[in-house]
Amino acid sequence: MSDKVPMTAEGYARMEEELRHLKAVARPEVIKAIAEARAHGDLSENAEYHAARERQSFIEGRVGELEDKISRAQVIDPATLSGDTVKFGATVKVVDEDSEEETTYQIVGEIEADVKQGKIAVTSPLARALIGKALGDSVEVATPKGPKAYEILEVRYS
């Protein structure tokens, strides 16, 4: 897979920090735990050994996943973008045309998405509907509860 993975500089920095932590802290800890568990003798009935091996497997898998994503990262700094048209990295304030409820979302890479923090994946139905639209436009999004209409109140890049 050589597809570029779009992400913000903030998301890239978080991934690098997690990778650094896994390599510098978690990996040495699990190696030490495996060595200590081995010292207890019979490995076939040693729950600590099996738990440590499982943790090591998770860490190595996550390290590989992060290294892959970092190597394919296409870092986009929203602060370098501008305009009234919604693009990757934009922070968009919308109003639900039925409930009048206002919500603000930032359009980010899939790995950074966190709806609770107002970060939606560029691949999400709402983000796909918003991309390319401008201030004042209305968009309709298919949701599990049926179609929803939103009006774009604000587009900013920061």
Automatic annotation (TrEMBL):
<dbReference type="InterPro" id="IPR022691">
    <property type="entry name" value="Tscrpt_elong_fac_GreA/B_N"/>
</dbReference>
<comment type="similarity">
    <text>Belongs to the GreA/GreB family.</text>
</comment>
<dbReference type="Pfam" id="PF03449">
    <property type="entry name" value="GreA_GreB_N"/>
</dbReference>
<keyword id="KW-0648">Protein biosynthesis</keyword>
<dbReference type="GO" id="GO:0032784">
    <property type="term" value="P:regulation of DNA-templated transcription elongation"/>
</dbReference>
<dbReference type="Pfam" id="PF01272">
    <property type="entry name" value="GreA_GreB"/>
</dbReference>
<keyword id="KW-0251">Elongation factor</keyword>
<dbReference type="InterPro" id="IPR018151">
    <property type="entry name" value="TF_GreA/GreB_CS"/>
</dbReference>
<dbReference type="GO" id="GO:0003746">
    <property type="term" value="F:translation elongation factor activity"/>
</dbReference>
<protein>
    <recommendedName>
        <fullName>Transcription elongation factor GreA</fullName>
    </recommendedName>
</protein>
<feature type="domain" description="Transcription elongation factor GreA/GreB N-terminal">
    <location>
        <begin position="5"/>
        <end position="75"/>
    </location>
</feature>
<dbReference type="InterPro" id="IPR036953">
    <property type="entry name" value="GreA/GreB_C_sf"/>
</dbReference>
<dbReference type="GO" id="GO:0006354">
    <property type="term" value="P:DNA-templated transcription elongation"/>
</dbReference>
<dbReference type="GO" id="GO:0070063">
    <property type="term" value="F:RNA polymerase binding"/>
</dbReference>
<dbReference type="InterPro" id="IPR001437">
    <property type="entry name" value="Tscrpt_elong_fac_GreA/B_C"/>
</dbReference>
<dbReference type="InterPro" id="IPR006359">
    <property type="entry name" value="Tscrpt_elong_fac_GreA"/>
</dbReference>
<dbReference type="InterPro" id="IPR028624">
    <property type="entry name" value="Tscrpt_elong_fac_GreA/B"/>
</dbReference>
<comment type="function">
    <text>Necessary for efficient RNA polymerase transcription elongation past template-encoded arresting sites. The arresting sites in DNA have the property of trapping a certain fraction of elongating RNA polymerases that pass through, resulting in locked ternary complexes. Cleavage of the nascent transcript by cleavage factors such as GreA or GreB allows the resumption of elongation from the new 3'terminus. GreA releases sequences of 2 to 3 nucleotides.</text>
</comment>
<keyword id="KW-0805">Transcription regulation</keyword>
<feature type="domain" description="Transcription elongation factor GreA/GreB C-terminal">
    <location>
        <begin position="83"/>
        <end position="157"/>
    </location>
</feature>
<dbReference type="InterPro" id="IPR036805">
    <property type="entry name" value="Tscrpt_elong_fac_GreA/B_N_sf"/>
</dbReference>
<keyword id="KW-0804">Transcription</keyword>
<keyword id="KW-0238">DNA-binding</keyword>
<dbReference type="GO" id="GO:0003677">
    <property type="term" value="F:DNA binding"/>
</dbReference>
<dbReference type="InterPro" id="IPR023459">
    <property type="entry name" value="Tscrpt_elong_fac_GreA/B_fam"/>
</dbReference>
